[in-house]
Predict the 3D structure of the following.
Amino acid sequence: MEKEEEGKEKLEVVELEIPAKHPRAIEANVMIFNIILSVIGAIIGLQILTTLGITPNTAIIGVLLAIAISRIPVPFLSAFRSIHRQNLLQSNISSATFGAANCLLLPIGIPFLLGRQDLVLPMLLGATMGMLVDLAMLYWFFDSRIFPGENAWPPGLAAAEAIIAGDRGGKRGRLLIYGTVVGVIGSYFNISMSAFGVAFIGNIVALAMFGVGLLIRGYAPALFHVDINKLYIPHGMMIGAGLVALIQIIVILTKRTGKESGEATQPVSYTRSENYVRRKLVTGCVLYLIAAIIVSLATGLWAEMSFGKILLWVVFAAFACVAAEFIVGLASMHAGWFPAFATALIFLVLGILMGFPPVAAAILVGFVASGGPAFADAGYDLRAGWWLRGKGKHLQFELDGRWQQIIAGFVGLMIGLVMVFFFRDLYFSQNLVPPVDRVFVATIKAGVDPSLIKSLLIWAMPGAIIQILGGSTRQMGILLSTGLLIMNPLAGWAVLVGIAIRYALRTKYGEEMETPMTIFGAGCIAGDALYGFFNAVFKAKWR
């Protein structure tokens, strides 16, 4: 019995390496591999997004490469046995993948499809600014009351557990391997194992709403003979839930805590205080306003609209970027899935309804789409680092490591920018653009029926009510709307089955099962990511 208890203790408590100083992202060996991995990650992201319409999670690939590099018996590479250097490489490659594909190529594909090649480079400028502001805002907001480090951020936890397994092995390693194998097998049979794994990690109520949304979207045509997406029901609900979520965030930030410092001093506190986040939110809004002004000037929107309309466009574009990053961030934090494309489409529809001409609407949706993925991906990466650095217990080490991750991510984004700048014509000349761009352009050309306003307003009300009922911790409205926006009913079943298993195990064995289930769930997510990555690469190669 004592041995059994000892085994459980070893599973739950792992003393991770906390050196006196966090490794630097600008160390020669780290920088060399970051540049190499950035190029690889960018190529992977560009190729798969343009051929399949998805962006694979390369963070796990970065972990495996970092572990493999660390095992090569060469002094130059032995430094990568540090889990924190491995975390830097993992952060870098995922940033390059999402940055090049989702944040940059996707926005510039919109004016290209509209036949406005002259706007491709100005749009690239705007997308770059949106991407970088989003990265900065996630850095400012991470591990605050609105985006706590202790929340799920499932892909980030999966990456962290993979690094720990490579470093320590043992029972944690075996559990992670079992989960990974299950994840690969399930993915082979087209079961969303990421959704299944998330069920063991996140808030049960929030994830239940996510699963219900997935099932409603998937089965509504057969059961109710209606396509809720064509009626913009999910979009209306997300508008209502998103507005309430923004109000909830403002309420949190306007509550006085008595702390003037941006850094927490109490062990139970977050590393970012409400005062700090409040100031940085204002900074971020100002940066978005400046970026929107620059974009409007660079793209010549001033020649297409009156001064009043330009002013409205600038303010709305800045607001949309902030709102979109919060919606995407909250969904990714709780569920590991983020409706970036759908959220951008929502603001595109609103922009068209506000009377913006086609070019202005195209630049708007590209600008909004550039940020959300950077926010979510950086959240995953910082969650992995937060877990590896002791969950915020070592304050200075945590803040230092977080900054090093941002530098590594910035390198990935900049390499992604270089790759997109030089290779955009290679893709566009073959008519290879992200498929969602065709949806955006088709929407712009078709326009939107003004009667749609009524539908959006009607369905915004239940979205708002559900969000209010769930409160700021569960984000029920955001998660339900996220599920409604995604056509994947099997993922809905996977989430609900996973929740049922988690509930049954916890009821029978108590809270001591939480840690094993978390590790197993992380393995399922890792297995799904690995299978999805190699399957996507294979399909893209032979397409």
Observations:
- Residues 22-542 form one domain.
- Confidence is low (pLDDT under 50) at residues 1-10, 258-268.
- The first helix runs from residue 2 to 12.
